[in-house]
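[recover] target loaded
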């Protein structure tokens, strides 16, 4: 398992280095999530896009790249009450409807790619692949001093690549800081 986690980290670092905006990391985040008798703790690095689409009345659609590393802890492994711990690396392009100042209330949505260190099998939800899509919708607020607080609903699924494909949903609380 250590070799697999090392491989996942190597893939994540390679993907980040291939991105032209990797040197423009401008936000760090910590997220806590729960769903399907699974807890998740996730660290993230974000890189804002300079693009602004649909500008009108002081608002626009912008976005960012979200690079994440997470630890999942399931409390009903194989439906037998044991625990399952796995790592998740991901990269997600996120679109955000926000004020031109990038402060205040916002709404966002994203669909990204995730690789799990092992196949998830918790609470009678058995994934068939380590590869998963992670999509989310959320709302949040950015304070004047750069704190980003949000709530989102996230869904993981392999998109029907292989069956079974039960998916799993998480309720996510996020705290980030822009520097």
């Amino acid at each position: 398992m250590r070799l697999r986690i090392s491989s996942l980290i190597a893939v994540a670092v390679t993907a980040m280095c291939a991105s032209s905006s990797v040197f423009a990391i401008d936000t760090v985040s910590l997220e806590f999530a729960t769903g399907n008798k699974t807890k998740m703790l996730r660290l993230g690095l974000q890189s804002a896009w300079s693009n602004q689409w649909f500008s009108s009345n002081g608002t626009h659609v912008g976005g960012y790249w979200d690079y994440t590393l997470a630890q999942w802890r399931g409390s009903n492994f194989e439906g037998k009450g044991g625990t399952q711990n796995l790592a998740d690396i991901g990269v997600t392009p996120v679109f955000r409807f926000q004020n031109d100042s990038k402060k205040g209330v916002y709404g966002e949505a994203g669909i990204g790619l995730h690789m799990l260190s092992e196949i998830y099998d918790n609470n009678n939800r058995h994934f068939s692949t380590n590869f998963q899509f992670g999509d989310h919708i959320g709302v949040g607020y950015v304070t004047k001093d750069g704190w980003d607080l949000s709530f989102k609903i996230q869904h993981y699924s392999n998109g029907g690549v292989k069956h079974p494909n039960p998916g799993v949903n998480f309720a996510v609380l996020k705290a980030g800081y822009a520097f």
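[recover] notes: The radius of gyration is 17 Å.
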